[in-house]
Design brief:
single chain; about 500 residues; alpha/beta; Glutaredoxin; Rossmann fold; Ubiquitin-like (UB roll); 4 domains; five-stranded mixed beta sheet; four-stranded antiparallel beta sheet; 21 helices; about 40% helix
């Protein structure tokens, strides 16, 4: 029998290391895999048997002796027995492309990656011209998964068409939105997929150097990425003359500056150049004048991770998932007051209600759900009347909301939505780079105005002022930091006005 216990951040935080040590003490050396994203079951112990891989969870070190005894007799007799892992309904009903390998084996084992079709996309790309690779990305319908949902192929085409002696591929791995962990799970459970995607991107546009701008709070991902990059270099999947093709691509990890604003692509580039993370005015676009003034592809982790699947299986296979202009799969992250938190990968089109009720199983507190925030701290708060909206970029835009990075945060009926609206403004106060006045000053005034509304100080006039302030921030800010802060504020005012008047806060 072979044992698997994850070494990703979530599993480690929940005690996976002590479980691994208990297994070692019992003479069962476990493979340290990555999480499958079923966080409510972590630490998830998987055991490879003659009948396939079975699971136990959540496991603590004191459970190990009993599990080992049960394995000798009848595994299902143990109270933590979950059955075959691939048949757990949370996992089996997903459509996994990007996360197909997550949790299957050691994330930094090259042999494991290649056994699971790793680097097949890169090998296909090496036989294509740059334009052919870009055409595949265009035909797939892939849109940026970082929030703006801009078509990835168009961005790549712009960089390909620029003439320059140096071009760059930059991966935005500064995952800072509340309730998001999809990027981290890729980097900790399947880092070679990101490496492969970045290398393909380099071949596509003629870039020879790539950088992963990694959130400084991700030490496990930092360690695993560096190990994976070193091994990929040794195996000639990176570096000079990749697989004898004469093509070159080098890759480095750079730690972020710890600022939320550095998740904005131009601020990220400033930070990567060693400067303070300040938003740049556009134009020029980073695709034309990006890192060190050179043409640069800036994509999110999930965007680049999807590339290997597209080049391995073909654009048409990827394009067959999803709906409308939202093609492929979406990494949905369930967090907040949720019974079953974790990562779900599904084709675009599933409704928000299905995600939260069928996969999340409602609130952790057991109380009714009151609001759902989608898209991070700048996303709108959605009431029950909007939960049947399909997870689709255009459908969400139609209700003045956004999918963003796919993070979902659930609030039960004790949540004070006026306080949440205030938090949105306060978050902007703390995280604004300060370059533009609407964001820098508007957020400060926003906190003050909300406080006056809640205190019933000239409430009617202050409500008018708050709406005007939101208009100014949305239309006048340089980037989405100030431009989207009004989204949660306006949605709270529209759907949860009673909380601003003292008639509905926390007493439902």
């Amino acid at each position: 029998m072979k044992f698997f216990i994850p070494k990703d951040t979530t599993a480690l935080a929940l005690g996976a290391e002590s479980v691994a040590m208990a297994l070692q003490a019992a003479g069962a050396e476990p493979v340290r895999n990555g999480s499958r994203g079923m966080f409510w079951l972590e630490p998830l112990l998987e055991v490879e048997t003659d009948l396939g891989r079975i699971g136990f969870g959540p496991v603590s070190s004191k459970d190990v002796p009993g599990i080992l005894d049960a394995l000798k007799a009848e595994p299902s007799s143990h109270n933590l027995y979950l059955g075959p892992v691939n048949e757990i309904s949370f996992l089996s009903s997903q459509q996994r492309l990007t996360y197909a390998r997550a949790g299957v084996g050691d994330p930094v084992c090259l042999d494991n990656y290649q056994t699971l079709n790793g680097f097949k996309g890169l090998k296909n790309a090496l036989s294509f011209t740059g334009q052919q690779i870009v055409d595949q990305v265009k035909d797939s319908g892939l849109r940026g998964r970082g929030g703006a949902a801009f078509p990835a192929g168009i961005k790549w085409q712009t960089v390909l068409d620029c003439e320059s002696e140096q071009k760059y591929i930059v991966c935005n791995a500064d995952e800072g939105d509340s309730g998001t962990f999809a990027d981290r799970l890729v980097m900790e459970s399947d880092p070679y997929q990101l490496i492969e995607g970045m290398c393909i991107a380099g071949l596509a546009v003629g870039a020879t150097q790539g950088y992963i701008y990694l959130r400084s709070e991700y030490p496990v991902a930092h360690k695993l990425l560096n190990i994976a990059i070193d091994r990929a270099l040794e195996a000639n999947f990176l570096g000079d003359n990749i697989q004898g093709s004469g093509k070159t691509f080098h890759l480095e990890v750079r730690l972020g500056a710890g600022a939320y604003i550095c998740g904005e692509e131009t601020s990220l580039l400033e930070s990567l150049e060693g400067k303070r993370g300040m938003v740049r005015a556009k134009p020029p676009l980073p695709a034309i004048e990006g890192l060190f003034g050179k043409p640069t592809v800036v994509n999110n982790v999930l965007t680049l991770a999807a590339i290997s699947s597209i080049l391995e299986q073909g654009a048409e296979v990827y394009q067959n998932f999803g709906m409308g202009r939202s093609r492929g799969t979406l990494a949905i992250q369930l967090a907040g007051n949720i019974k079953r938190g974790g990562l779900i990968e599904l084709a675009f089109g599933v409704t928000l209600r299905e995600v939260v009720e069928d996969y999340g199983q409602g609130t952790y507190s057991g109380r009714p759900i009151r609001a759902i925030q989608v898209g991070g701290p700048l996303g709108a708060f959605l009431p029950e009347s909007q939960w049947d909206t399909p997870m689709d970029y255009e459908a969400f835009a139609a209700i003045n909301a956004m999918i963003g990075h796919g993070g979902i945060v659930v609030f039960d009926d004790t949540a004070d939505m006026a306080a949440q609206a205030r938090f949105a403004m306060e978050f902007c106060v703390l995280e604004s780079c300060g370059k533009c006045t609407p964001c820098r000053i508007g957020s400060v005034r926003g906190v003050e105005v909300i406080d006056r509304i809640v205190a019933n100080e000239d409430r009617d006039n202050n409500l008018i002022l708050l709406h005007d302030l939101c208009d100014t921030m949305e239309l006048g800010s340089l980037c989405a930091m100030g431009g989207m802060t009004p989204f949660p504020v306006r949605s709270a005012l529209t759907h949860f006005m009673s909380d601003f008047t003292g008639q509905g806060r926390g007493d439902n």
